[in-house]
């Protein structure tokens, strides 16, 4: 008996575990993580511009950015201990950090003084620290171990696609807003 030949696209689907894309839960996580990642990169790149628009000079902007970075690094270290202590899943910790990021970014629009901005940006750094740690744990906690490499690879591909799509759009908008052609 001769077996039916396997189509080339079936080999691609099997090789890259693209059957993950039939799992709605994975697709929601996949797209959500990528959209959040893209938003984070774009916001991080725009933060100094936003602070400059708010009237802060370069020295103040550098100090504010340092506060974000320091609190981010400190809470990258502390967040696993906090998560373990309160016994919440990585998915909910990630979601909580995204909500805190939204609150802090929104709060940044309402700050008027240097001190208020420092405090808000410290909160932003805390949220970024938690987000960074738990973002990397969401997919491994959802997919089976044998599909983890493919799931992470698909995540990276989607991150790249969204960054290539939205980065230039945002850059063009900023360029136009600041007197470009």
UniProtKB/TrEMBL annotation:
<keyword id="KW-0812">Transmembrane</keyword>
<dbReference type="InterPro" id="IPR036259">
    <property type="entry name" value="MFS_trans_sf"/>
</dbReference>
<keyword id="KW-1133">Transmembrane helix</keyword>
<dbReference type="Pfam" id="PF07690">
    <property type="entry name" value="MFS_1"/>
</dbReference>
<dbReference type="InterPro" id="IPR011701">
    <property type="entry name" value="MFS"/>
</dbReference>
<protein>
    <submittedName>
        <fullName>Uncharacterized protein</fullName>
    </submittedName>
</protein>
<dbReference type="InterPro" id="IPR050327">
    <property type="entry name" value="Proton-linked_MCT"/>
</dbReference>
<feature type="transmembrane region" description="Helical">
    <location>
        <begin position="88"/>
        <end position="108"/>
    </location>
</feature>
<feature type="transmembrane region" description="Helical">
    <location>
        <begin position="27"/>
        <end position="52"/>
    </location>
</feature>
<feature type="transmembrane region" description="Helical">
    <location>
        <begin position="64"/>
        <end position="82"/>
    </location>
</feature>
<keyword id="KW-0472">Membrane</keyword>
